[in-house]
Amino acid sequence: MAGESLTLNAPAKINWFLKILGLRDDGYHEIRSLIQKVTLYDELRFTLSDRVIIKTNLDIPVEENLVYRAARLLKERYHVDKGIIIELKKNIPMGAGLGGGSSDAAATLVVLNRLWSLHIPEPELYRMASELGSDVPSFLKGGLTYVEGRGERVIQYEASRPLSLLLVKPHFEVSTRWAYTRFDEHRGDKLTKGLDNSDNIKLFVNCIRGADIEGISRFNHAILNDLEVVTLSAFPLIAEIKERLRREGAVFSLMSGSGSTVFGVFESWERAEEASRGFGDLWTAVVQTIIK
Fold it and tell me: Is the pLDDT of residue 193 over 60?
């Protein structure tokens, strides 16, 4: 009925690794990645209305907002005669490799499927999520997911307990399109190597699932984000942040997604908070991983 509302928090994510296997015929990249949601959230409030209206603190054209695109996709594909007012409060920084826009889009698909009584089966919801962006399908699953393909093949895992992380973002954004283009340009330089066999993947996934701090630390230099390798030369501050995190006690650090955020894994929330004080000049957030 008109006026019915629902509020949802959409979590950020980190990439525990990102392996790029090549360029597909459809123009997307074939990837492998282990993605985990973390306790940093955008806030969305949905209220039934006659029109689709987006209210947000984002300074971008509404047509470029993934929340708007998700709502329009559902409305047009299913010939919905209802509207929605979506109030979006962004807390997850943009251009940070934390998946805020993708998470917001996934939340919009799930909530509007319910509020508009569309009863869309899960496989179709995943197909529409893939149309909106490669990261969107993983946000339809739980806390820890392994993704393949362009991101549309998703396997969900559970972890035994949360891990404490410190997120650090420099004062600039990194475009996902730019990062992948740069990767393609430098692929012949053989800059990317590391986690490229199934045995290593299984071992590392087991360490994450078991919240095995000592085990995770052993992968500190073996686990790679292929986009990080080509991004560091253009943005050396990212490498500096990684090194500062390790000096502050992080047992593992890596750039998330296409950047620019770097995360560090700490033995406790208190250690992560203490380390955050060493980055007073940058945006930081102490978070925990979401396990289910």
Answer: no
